[in-house]
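Consider the subject:
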Amino acid sequence: MNNNYLNKYISAKTKKVLENNIYKYKKYIQSVIIFVIFYIIAKKVYNSIIAKINEKQDKVKISYDFFASFIFYFILLIGLFLSLLNADVDTNSILVILGSSGLAIALALQNSISQIINGLMILYFNYYELNDTIQVGDYLGKVVGFSLLNTTIETHENNINIIIPNNEIVSKVVYNFTKTPQILNSISVSISSNNNIDFIKLIDNIKAILRTKCKYIIDKNNINVNITDIAESGTKLVIKFKVNSMDFIESQYDVRLLVRNLLSQSHIKLLDNGYIQ
Protein backbone atom coordinates (compact mmCIF):
# COMPACT_ATOMS: atom_id res chain seq x y z
CA MET A 1 0.00 0.00 0.00
CA ASN A 2 2.71 2.30 1.06
CA ASN A 3 4.78 1.25 -1.92
CA ASN A 4 1.92 1.97 -4.33
CA TYR A 5 1.32 5.38 -2.78
CA LEU A 6 5.03 6.15 -2.91
CA ASN A 7 5.23 5.12 -6.55
CA LYS A 8 2.23 7.30 -7.41
CA TYR A 9 3.76 10.23 -5.50
CA ILE A 10 7.10 9.83 -7.25
CA SER A 11 5.37 9.49 -10.63
CA ALA A 12 3.28 12.61 -10.01
CA LYS A 13 6.33 14.57 -8.87
CA THR A 14 8.39 13.33 -11.79
CA LYS A 15 5.59 14.26 -14.17
CA LYS A 16 5.36 17.72 -12.67
CA VAL A 17 9.12 18.22 -12.92
CA LEU A 18 9.04 16.96 -16.47
CA GLU A 19 6.19 19.33 -17.37
CA ASN A 20 8.06 22.22 -15.79
CA ASN A 21 11.19 21.35 -17.76
CA ILE A 22 9.21 21.05 -20.99
CA TYR A 23 7.63 24.45 -20.26
CA LYS A 24 11.07 25.98 -19.65
CA TYR A 25 12.52 24.41 -22.79
CA LYS A 26 9.58 25.70 -24.82
CA LYS A 27 10.23 29.17 -23.39
CA TYR A 28 13.92 28.89 -24.24
CA ILE A 29 13.17 27.76 -27.78
CA GLN A 30 10.65 30.61 -28.19
CA SER A 31 13.24 33.06 -26.89
CA VAL A 32 15.83 31.80 -29.37
CA ILE A 33 13.28 32.10 -32.20
CA ILE A 34 12.42 35.67 -31.13
CA PHE A 35 16.11 36.62 -31.09
CA VAL A 36 16.71 35.01 -34.50
CA ILE A 37 13.71 36.88 -35.97
CA PHE A 38 15.03 40.21 -34.65
CA TYR A 39 18.50 39.34 -35.96
CA ILE A 40 17.06 38.75 -39.45
CA ILE A 41 15.12 42.04 -39.26
CA ALA A 42 18.23 43.93 -38.07
CA LYS A 43 20.31 42.41 -40.87
CA LYS A 44 17.74 43.34 -43.51
CA VAL A 45 17.54 46.93 -42.22
CA TYR A 46 21.35 47.13 -42.13
CA ASN A 47 21.69 45.85 -45.72
CA SER A 48 18.95 48.24 -46.87
CA ILE A 49 20.78 51.22 -45.37
CA ILE A 50 24.12 50.12 -46.86
CA ALA A 51 22.44 49.72 -50.29
CA LYS A 52 21.11 53.29 -50.05
CA ILE A 53 24.59 54.48 -49.11
CA ASN A 54 26.16 52.77 -52.13
CA GLU A 55 23.61 54.49 -54.40
CA LYS A 56 24.73 57.90 -53.07
CA GLN A 57 28.42 57.13 -52.84
CA ASP A 58 29.17 59.07 -56.03
CA LYS A 59 27.38 62.09 -54.58
CA VAL A 60 28.34 62.16 -50.92
CA LYS A 61 31.28 60.53 -49.19
CA ILE A 62 29.85 59.70 -45.80
CA SER A 63 30.74 57.57 -42.83
CA TYR A 64 27.21 56.17 -42.86
CA ASP A 65 28.32 52.67 -41.90
CA PHE A 66 28.40 53.83 -38.29
CA PHE A 67 24.72 54.78 -38.47
CA ALA A 68 23.78 51.47 -40.11
CA SER A 69 25.68 49.54 -37.42
CA PHE A 70 23.99 51.56 -34.68
CA ILE A 71 20.52 50.68 -36.05
CA PHE A 72 21.56 47.03 -36.40
CA TYR A 73 22.68 46.67 -32.78
CA PHE A 74 19.74 48.71 -31.49
CA ILE A 75 17.24 46.31 -33.10
CA LEU A 76 19.32 43.38 -31.87
CA LEU A 77 19.25 44.76 -28.32
CA ILE A 78 15.44 44.98 -28.44
CA GLY A 79 15.30 41.36 -29.62
CA LEU A 80 17.62 40.25 -26.82
CA PHE A 81 15.54 42.06 -24.20
CA LEU A 82 12.27 40.51 -25.44
CA SER A 83 13.92 37.09 -25.56
CA LEU A 84 15.04 37.37 -21.94
CA LEU A 85 11.61 38.62 -20.96
CA ASN A 86 9.96 35.64 -22.67
CA ALA A 87 12.34 33.27 -20.87
CA ASP A 88 11.14 34.67 -17.52
CA VAL A 89 14.57 36.18 -16.78
CA ASP A 90 14.49 39.04 -14.28
CA THR A 91 15.15 42.04 -16.53
CA ASN A 92 14.84 44.71 -13.85
CA SER A 93 18.52 44.52 -12.90
CA ILE A 94 19.48 44.51 -16.58
CA LEU A 95 17.37 47.62 -17.18
CA VAL A 96 18.97 49.38 -14.21
CA ILE A 97 22.48 48.58 -15.49
CA LEU A 98 21.62 49.59 -19.07
CA GLY A 99 19.90 52.77 -17.87
CA SER A 100 22.78 53.94 -15.71
CA SER A 101 25.35 52.98 -18.35
CA GLY A 102 23.36 54.70 -21.08
CA LEU A 103 23.04 57.88 -19.03
CA ALA A 104 26.77 57.95 -18.30
CA ILE A 105 27.63 57.37 -21.97
CA ALA A 106 25.10 60.00 -23.12
CA LEU A 107 26.56 62.62 -20.77
CA ALA A 108 30.12 61.80 -21.85
CA LEU A 109 29.26 61.91 -25.56
CA GLN A 110 26.71 64.73 -25.41
CA ASN A 111 28.56 66.95 -27.89
CA SER A 112 29.28 64.07 -30.29
CA ILE A 113 25.65 62.91 -30.20
CA SER A 114 24.52 66.45 -30.98
CA GLN A 115 26.89 66.58 -33.96
CA ILE A 116 25.68 63.18 -35.21
CA ILE A 117 22.05 64.37 -35.06
CA ASN A 118 23.03 67.51 -37.01
CA GLY A 119 24.89 65.32 -39.51
CA LEU A 120 21.72 63.30 -40.07
CA MET A 121 19.79 66.56 -40.56
CA ILE A 122 22.30 67.69 -43.21
CA LEU A 123 21.85 64.38 -45.03
CA TYR A 124 18.06 64.33 -44.71
CA PHE A 125 17.57 67.90 -45.95
CA ASN A 126 20.33 67.48 -48.56
CA TYR A 127 22.29 70.62 -47.68
CA TYR A 128 25.08 69.70 -50.11
CA GLU A 129 26.83 66.85 -51.86
CA LEU A 130 30.43 65.92 -52.61
CA ASN A 131 32.20 68.53 -54.83
CA ASP A 132 29.51 71.15 -54.20
CA THR A 133 30.84 74.67 -53.72
CA ILE A 134 29.49 76.04 -50.45
CA GLN A 135 30.03 78.91 -48.07
CA VAL A 136 29.51 78.56 -44.31
CA GLY A 137 30.24 81.79 -42.44
CA ASP A 138 33.72 82.89 -43.53
CA TYR A 139 34.59 79.48 -45.00
CA LEU A 140 34.28 79.06 -48.76
CA GLY A 141 35.30 76.00 -50.73
CA LYS A 142 34.41 72.63 -52.24
CA VAL A 143 33.01 69.80 -50.14
CA VAL A 144 35.64 67.04 -50.22
CA GLY A 145 34.51 64.96 -47.25
CA PHE A 146 31.56 64.38 -44.98
CA SER A 147 30.94 62.39 -41.80
CA LEU A 148 28.20 62.41 -39.21
CA LEU A 149 30.48 64.57 -37.02
CA ASN A 150 31.94 67.14 -39.42
CA THR A 151 32.30 68.38 -42.98
CA THR A 152 35.58 68.99 -44.82
CA ILE A 153 35.86 71.71 -47.45
CA GLU A 154 38.88 72.60 -49.57
CA THR A 155 39.69 76.23 -50.31
CA HIS A 156 40.65 77.06 -53.89
CA GLU A 157 43.39 79.63 -53.47
CA ASN A 158 45.66 77.64 -51.14
CA ASN A 159 44.07 74.14 -51.22
CA ILE A 160 43.73 74.01 -47.43
CA ASN A 161 41.31 71.44 -45.99
CA ILE A 162 39.04 73.01 -43.38
CA ILE A 163 37.11 70.69 -41.05
CA ILE A 164 33.85 72.27 -39.85
CA PRO A 165 31.77 70.63 -37.08
CA ASN A 166 28.23 69.85 -38.22
CA ASN A 167 26.88 71.80 -35.22
CA GLU A 168 28.36 74.96 -36.68
CA ILE A 169 26.98 74.25 -40.16
CA VAL A 170 23.40 73.67 -38.96
CA SER A 171 23.49 76.83 -36.81
CA LYS A 172 24.59 79.08 -39.71
CA VAL A 173 23.35 80.05 -43.16
CA VAL A 174 24.76 77.70 -45.81
CA TYR A 175 25.19 79.02 -49.35
CA ASN A 176 25.27 76.20 -51.92
CA PHE A 177 26.43 77.71 -55.19
CA THR A 178 26.32 74.41 -57.07
CA LYS A 179 22.58 73.87 -56.72
CA THR A 180 21.93 77.05 -58.74
CA PRO A 181 23.23 76.62 -62.35
CA GLN A 182 24.27 80.26 -62.76
CA ILE A 183 24.94 82.93 -60.17
CA LEU A 184 25.99 86.56 -60.02
CA ASN A 185 29.50 86.67 -58.61
CA SER A 186 31.18 89.78 -57.25
CA ILE A 187 34.44 91.10 -55.85
CA SER A 188 35.27 94.44 -54.25
CA VAL A 189 38.38 96.56 -54.77
CA SER A 190 39.42 99.35 -52.37
CA ILE A 191 41.71 101.87 -54.09
CA SER A 192 43.88 104.31 -52.14
CA SER A 193 43.07 108.00 -52.35
CA ASN A 194 46.75 108.71 -52.98
CA ASN A 195 46.18 107.78 -56.61
CA ASN A 196 45.24 110.31 -59.26
CA ILE A 197 42.75 108.18 -61.18
CA ASP A 198 40.37 108.61 -64.06
CA PHE A 199 37.72 106.19 -62.76
CA ILE A 200 35.71 106.19 -66.00
CA LYS A 201 38.77 105.01 -67.91
CA LEU A 202 39.68 102.53 -65.16
CA ILE A 203 36.20 101.00 -65.17
CA ASP A 204 36.31 100.64 -68.97
CA ASN A 205 39.75 98.98 -68.74
CA ILE A 206 38.51 96.52 -66.08
CA LYS A 207 35.52 95.56 -68.23
CA ALA A 208 37.71 95.18 -71.31
CA ILE A 209 40.28 92.92 -69.68
CA LEU A 210 37.60 90.74 -68.09
CA ARG A 211 35.83 90.36 -71.45
CA THR A 212 38.99 89.22 -73.18
CA LYS A 213 40.90 87.36 -70.46
CA CYS A 214 38.40 85.74 -68.06
CA LYS A 215 37.07 82.47 -69.48
CA TYR A 216 34.59 81.92 -66.64
CA ILE A 217 32.33 84.93 -67.26
CA ILE A 218 29.21 83.88 -69.17
CA ASP A 219 27.69 87.20 -70.24
CA LYS A 220 30.67 89.25 -71.41
CA ASN A 221 28.49 92.25 -72.25
CA ASN A 222 26.92 92.42 -68.81
CA ILE A 223 29.92 93.07 -66.54
CA ASN A 224 29.07 95.74 -63.99
CA VAL A 225 31.70 97.87 -62.25
CA ASN A 226 30.29 100.43 -59.82
CA ILE A 227 31.68 102.88 -57.28
CA THR A 228 29.93 102.03 -54.01
CA ASP A 229 31.86 104.05 -51.44
CA ILE A 230 34.02 107.18 -51.45
CA ALA A 231 35.99 108.10 -48.35
CA GLU A 232 39.09 110.09 -47.40
CA SER A 233 41.17 106.93 -47.35
CA GLY A 234 40.04 105.70 -50.74
CA THR A 235 37.34 104.55 -53.15
CA LYS A 236 35.60 101.18 -53.26
CA LEU A 237 34.68 99.48 -56.52
CA VAL A 238 32.37 96.46 -56.78
CA ILE A 239 32.68 94.23 -59.84
CA LYS A 240 29.72 91.95 -60.66
CA PHE A 241 29.67 89.20 -63.31
CA LYS A 242 27.63 86.08 -64.10
CA VAL A 243 29.27 82.64 -63.98
CA ASN A 244 28.36 78.97 -63.76
CA SER A 245 27.98 77.96 -60.13
CA MET A 246 30.60 75.24 -60.45
CA ASP A 247 33.10 77.96 -61.47
CA PHE A 248 32.30 80.24 -58.53
CA ILE A 249 35.65 79.93 -56.73
CA GLU A 250 37.77 79.71 -59.89
CA SER A 251 36.12 82.80 -61.36
CA GLN A 252 36.76 84.85 -58.22
CA TYR A 253 40.40 83.83 -58.19
CA ASP A 254 40.80 84.60 -61.90
CA VAL A 255 39.08 88.01 -61.71
CA ARG A 256 41.10 89.02 -58.65
CA LEU A 257 44.33 88.13 -60.42
CA LEU A 258 43.40 89.99 -63.62
CA VAL A 259 42.29 93.13 -61.75
CA ARG A 260 45.38 93.08 -59.52
CA ASN A 261 47.69 92.84 -62.54
CA LEU A 262 45.82 95.66 -64.30
CA LEU A 263 46.10 97.95 -61.27
CA SER A 264 49.75 97.07 -60.80
CA GLN A 265 50.56 97.86 -64.43
CA SER A 266 48.68 101.17 -64.03
CA HIS A 267 50.65 101.93 -60.80
CA ILE A 268 47.43 102.15 -58.79
CA LYS A 269 47.76 101.35 -55.08
CA LEU A 270 45.23 99.36 -53.10
CA LEU A 271 43.96 99.72 -49.55
CA ASP A 272 43.76 96.87 -47.00
CA ASN A 273 47.34 95.80 -47.72
CA GLY A 274 46.51 95.16 -51.32
CA TYR A 275 43.76 92.61 -50.59
CA ILE A 276 40.91 92.27 -53.10
CA GLN A 277 37.76 90.80 -51.55
